[in-house]
């Protein structure tokens, strides 16, 4: 295997990738949803805790259940996307630590006894897995539109009632209509946000 | 540019990448720190808010300032790593929204007026940028050891005193000693954690 990513791959994932706004009328092959997961699942999480839970909305009927929770600016994006993923977090993720982290199963209790640590770990690690989701989708040739502009409590009630899962963020996926992309925003320079000690 | 990532690149970033435990005695070229940032900065954040702030610890003296804050299990990892990055979050990130998100500068006020939203946005988006950091480092041939086992408040006092930055997580970088890797942990199957509606 090569030891670095070539420039075309860097363009695909980083330097020329753009957030999708609206999408072309082109469906996402159902098997790609599984392929996204089968790439993203390998990314590292704290104690391999893997708290992300994903609901893929693939039909107009399923997306219609999400629309009342979305902020106005995101409704057209959701309607335009062939698939919308709800990236959720299992607040009881620690129940699975004995399985996922077998050399230190006692860490289950650390989180059972410390709600603050459990919440921060669920949020941090489901978010980091959400980033792996974005990169996995891009690796498979899909465009993504991650969004946090929605009513989390309402989504939780609609999709995660009776469970310990809470929504984290949404991500539209499909093939972007590049004509609808926003101008790319500026980024900080290295010196603005990095220090070397 | 190619529209999908080839299998070697998928191995490098996802399927064969492993979390680094201990490192070889091989330094990280200083310019690679800048290259990591210049890749990761392009990843999407909410309203392009870019809240991540990074401190690279590249000398034994700088790492020694971190050691008292680290949980016992992470001390050897920090000592072994040629570079340790502190991934921080600027809790006043919204001050820069008029620059970073010029088509909606008024969103600065949304966060000024809502501390809960500001904190969640800083945490979520600095974390997602931390994931981009990991993938950028891997893209450049480096191995990473992300860690959240440390005393955040103590790190904040030591490295971010007098600023609005708080630590999120740590990430060692370098060239891993593969002999010191842990056995890979299991992952959930698609059916365990994903639903298709």
Structure description:
2 copies of one chain form a homodimer. Chain A is of the alpha+beta class. Chain A is built from 9 helices and 5 strands, in the order H-H-E-H-H-E-H-H-H-E-H-E-H-E. The first copy, chain A, has helices spanning 7-15, 30-40, 60-66, 72-80, 97-100, 107-112, 115-139, 152-160, 190-193, and strands at residues 52-57, 83-90, 143-147, 165-174, 194-196. A 4-stranded antiparallel sheet of chain A has the order 1-2-4-3, sandwiched between helices. In chain A, helix 2 (30-40) packs across helix 7. Chains A and B meet through helix 1, helix 2, strand 1, helix 7 and strand 3 of A and helix 1, helix 2, strand 1, helix 7 and strand 3 of B.
Main-sheet strand order of chain A equals 1-2-4-3
Q: Which word captures the global form of chain A? A: globular
Radius of gyration of chain A: 18 Å
H-E string of chain A: HHEHHEHHHEHEHE
User: Please, what is the oligomeric state?
Assistant: homodimer
Low-confidence stretches of chain A: none
Largest sheet of chain A: 4 strands, antiparallel
Largest interface: A-B, 80 and 81 residues
- Averaging pLDDT over every residue of chain A, what do you get? 96
Helix residue percentage of chain A: 40-55%
Strand fraction of chain A equals 15-25%
What is the number of E strands of chain A? Answer: 5
| Alpha-beta classification of chain A | alpha+beta
């Amino acid at each position: 295997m090569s030891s670095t990513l070539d420039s075309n791959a860097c363009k695909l994932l980083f330097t020329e990738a753009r957030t999708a706004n609206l999408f072309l009328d082109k469906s996402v092959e159902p098997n790609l949803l599984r392929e996204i997961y089968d790439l993203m699942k390998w990314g590292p999480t704290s104690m391999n805790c893997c708290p992300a839970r994903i609901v893929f909305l693939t039909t107009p009927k399923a997306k219609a259940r999400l629309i009342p929770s979305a902020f106005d600016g995101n409704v057209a994006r959701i309607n335009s996307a062939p698939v919308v993923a709800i990236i959720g977090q299992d607040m009881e993720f620690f129940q699975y630590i004995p399985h996922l982290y077998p050399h230190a199963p006692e860490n289950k209790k650390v989180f059972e006894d410390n709600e603050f640590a459990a919440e921060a770990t669920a949020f941090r690690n489901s978010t980091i897995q959400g980033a792996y989701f974005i990169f996995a989708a891009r690796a498979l040739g899909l465009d993504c539109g991650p969004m946090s502009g929605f009513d989390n409590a309402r989504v939780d009630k609609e999709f995660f009632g009776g469970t310990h899962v809470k929504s984290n963020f949404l991500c539209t996926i499909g093939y972007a209509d590049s004509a609808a992309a926003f101008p790319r925003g500026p980024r900080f320079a290295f010196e603005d946000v990095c220090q070397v000690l």
